[in-house]
Design a protein that fits this description.
The protein is an alpha/beta fold and 716 residues long. Helix content is 46%, strand content 9%. The chain contains 28 helices and 18 strands. The structure holds (2R)-2,3-dihydroxypropyl phosphate and manganese (II) ion.
């Protein structure tokens, strides 16, 4: 026994032995921190495995630097690297506790929000066990100080050091490919910092973030005010006059933006086995006080939901590189809908039953001027409450109203649903229509989740009536992007009862609903061609806001002189006459492929192409170079991000205080909540007592999410 002990000690007395010990300790403590200090949403065995092993490659690489040095210097370097990486871990633990997200260079560099909020409450948010992350460093120092381990001066061969670094690089590669097999597009789509940490580890995340920041800040540093001139000129030349008949008709009304996840236009009035899939939305679509658009297209790129949000609330396109909410949401200057309306006296709130870090919403929403961001932690949790990316829509809608009713009116509230998201999974109890029978697994569950979403909207609308809110609210419903991608042409053809489905059809299939509903609104189905970029100017006109004051790329959909070229993010387009897909052109009305363009046709498609590419590249320039910082619209005050915090306790306190204004639904109901008037058939809520407070049920949450499917790659 003694001999074994002596051997181990002798091993640790070598430099290589000490190196191994330092790595093992660092690995263990990081894994402990992952599991106890963060909520990374690990699902399935593969993710568990990756979480366990992902600290190893980068730790070997970083600590391995010390092996290139000789004698004491080597040990000291190892300890310095260990300390620095531990400080980084510690800082992230503190930041995460407040923001449920990881620190970014952009935050550290640019925004006052971190320093402001962190330094203020640093002691309050610190937990004594946070300090355990320094234990390994202390243990190593003590072992050396008390000579339990002696520093070895015997050199480590250069060859060995190089081999160790090479091994680390190979391991990083292996880690990355395993991560990609579970989550395609992990680095290109950069959904969520939590994902990168979960799959690749905190240190790898830091490098990814550093590279991203370096790339974006170079473009921003070189930009100047005059770069906006071409943008302003383009917008001026392409401006459409808003429709005066609608100007200000919704002035002062509450605004609800209802984000219908992955909801396509073809679902409207669609029947499966003789039953309407979405009767509630169909009803809204046809109501005389709903303005519905049947040639309205989604225009998202890689950023999908994030692109839709960017267009809807800023009238700027998502960038070619992916989610601009992620790349620019933290640091850029924006003049977004919440800020515009907030400065007109509106209370603004976004609602989403997922973690706030997804698509960097937590930071982007601050830059957009949202007063409140009601995310996952604000909602109750319980067995079966979640599926896929978050809270099930019926539960989400119901519990959103307990905050909606507290918002001082008028308010602007955006509710982002999520159950109708790929891979369209829903438990038996919540299914109320049979799967379609195309034989394509990705496609066949779509009607089930769409129906579920529709029912949640029906329940929500009923509550709006009960609470009296419907009378003084304008509701904007929109589908964010396709649910069934062009990779499923055969199944789509079957679903639509057609013999074939080609690229042209797929371009037309990008239609999503847009419905504006308000009692007294002069409605009807409008056939203008437009897209998500046009929603904000349309809304602004209804609310009596002058869009021409802002840098916005869309135009009022009700305008009589608007250009109806709808740009897709890849440069393709649809106009009422022509559709461009890649290098092919089609007649939009007949779907006929144009084999040889006439001179007139060539002229028309060239004009459209030019318009589309110019708009996209100018919009990209605005975001990539942060050009809005050089322009403050008349009467608009630049958003001060540091003023916003989405901490649950703070938000609830602020809401409570706001009740004295007597303008919220709840205060007008003598301070009584109207939540119990909300009628839902959500089976999860059927037995009282199952509902628990969000924070007290993390174990239930973990158990639940473990059960959930491990593969949630987006359908590309
Ligand atoms: C996640 C949700 C999904 O919070 O909004 O985003 P998507 O995958 O549709 O872009
Ligand atoms: Mn989406």
């Amino acid at each position: 026994m003694k001999q074994i002990g002596r051997r181990i000690r002798a091993y640790f007395n070598t430099r290589f032995g000490f190196f191994v010990l330092a790595i093992v300790l660092f690995w263990l403590k990081t894994y402990w921190a992952y599991n106890t200090k963060f909520n990374l949403g690990v699902k399935g065995d593969m993710q568990q495995l990756l979480l366990a092993i992902n600290p190893i490659p980068t730790t070997i690489l970083l600590f391995g630097i010390a092996l290139y040095l000789s004698g004491h210097k080597s040990y000291i370097t190892m300890l310095i690297v260990d300390t620095l990486t531990s400080v980084w871990l510690f800082a992230n633990i503190l930041y995460y506790r407040e923001f449920s997200d990881f620190l970014t260079f952009a935050l550290i560099k640019g925004s006052g929000a971190v320093s402001n909020n962190l330094s203020k409450g640093i002691l309050g948010i610190m937990d004594p066990s946070d300090w355990y992350v320094f234990l390994d460093v202390i243990v190593l120092i003590l072992l050396l100080l008390f000579r339990v381990i002696r520093m070895s001066t015997a050199p480590v061969k250069k060859r060995t050091a190089v081999a160790i670094s090479a091994l680390a690089v190979c391991l990083i590669g292996a880690n990355l490919s395993m991560a990609y097999s579970d989550r395609s597009g992990l680095l290109t789509r950069t959904f969520d910092n939590n994902y990168i940490v979960k799959y690749l580890g905190l240190n790898a995340y830091t490098v990814v973030d550093g590279v991203k920041t370096a790339k974006t800040s170079a473009a921003k540093a070189n930009a100047k005010a005059s770069d906006l001139d071409s943008v302003k000129k383009f917008l001026k030349n392409n401006q459409a006059t808003p429709n005066v008949e609608y100007t200000g008709v919704a002035k002062g009304k509450n605004v609800f933006i209802i984000h219908l996840e992955s909801f396509q236009q073809f679902l409207i009035d669609f029947k499966w086995q003789g039953t309407e899939v979405t009767p509630n939305l169909n009803k809204l679509y046809h109501e005389s006080d709903t303005l519905s658009f049947d040639n309205f297209f989604n225009q998202v790129g890689q950023g999908k939901t994030a692109d839709a949000e960017m267009m809807l609330e800023n009238s700027l396109y998502g960038t070619a590189e992916g989610s601009a909410m992620v790349a620019d949401g933290t640091t850029n200057t924006f003049q977004a809908a919440p800020a515009i309306l907030g400065q007109m006296g509106y209370t603004t709130a976004a609602f989403h039953g997922d973690v706030p870090s997804f698509w960097n919403r937590d930071n982007a929403y601050r830059s957009w001027g949202y007063d409140y961001f009601i995310s996952k932690a604000y909602y109750p949790s319980g067995k079966g409450f979640e599926v896929g990316y978050g809270l099930k829509d019926k539960i989400f809608m119901k519990y959103s109203t307990q905050y909606v009713e507290q918002l001082p009116q008028p308010f602007y509230a955006k509710l982002i649903t999520v159950t109708n998201h790929y891979p369209y999974e829903l438990d038996k109890k919540n299914q109320s229509i049979a799967k379609t029978k195309t034989g394509d697994k990705t496609v066949d569950g779509y009607v089930q989740t769409a129906k579920y979403l529709d029912q949640s909207i029906g329940e929500f609308m009923a509550w709006l009536k009960t609470s009296g809110l419907e009378k003084n609210s304008l509701l904007v419903f929109y589908g964010d992007h396709y649910g069934i991608s062009g990779n499923h042409k055969k199944a789509i053809a079957k679903l639509l009862g057609r013999s074939d489905f080609n690229d042209f059809d797929n371009a037309q299939f990008q239609r999503v609903p847009l419905m504006l509903h308000m009692p007294g609104l002069r409605g009807g189905v409008n056939h203008t061609y437009g897209g998500e970029i046009d929603v904000l100017p349309t809304l602004e006109n209804l609310l009596g806001v002058k869009s021409s004051n802002y840098i916005q790329f869309g135009s009022d959909l009700l305008s009589k002189d608007r250009d109806q070229t709808v740009a897709f993010r890849n440069g393709d387009f649809v106009t009422p006459t022509y559709t461009k897909v890649g290098s092919s052109y089609y007649e939009t009305q007949t779907g006929e492929l144009i084999r040889k363009l006439t001179a007139e046709q060539k002229d028309a498609v060239d004009t459209a192409t030019n318009r589309v590419t110019t708009a996209l590249s100018l919009s990209d320039r605005v975001l990539n170079s942060d050009l809005l910082r050089f322009y403050t619209p008349n009467g608009f005050t630049k958003v001060d991000k540091s003023q916003y915090s989405y901490n649950k306790k703070k938000a609830e306190k602020k809401l409570k205080e706001a009740q004295s204004e007597n303008t919220s639904v709840m205060s007008q109901n003598k301070g009584e909540s109207l939540l119990d008037k909300y009628i839902t058939d959500a089976p999860e809520l059927a037995t009282e007592g199952e509902t628990q407070d969000a924070e007290s049920s993390s174990s239930a949450k973990k158990a639940d999410s473990k059960k959930a499917s491990s593969s949630k790659q987006d359908d590309k």
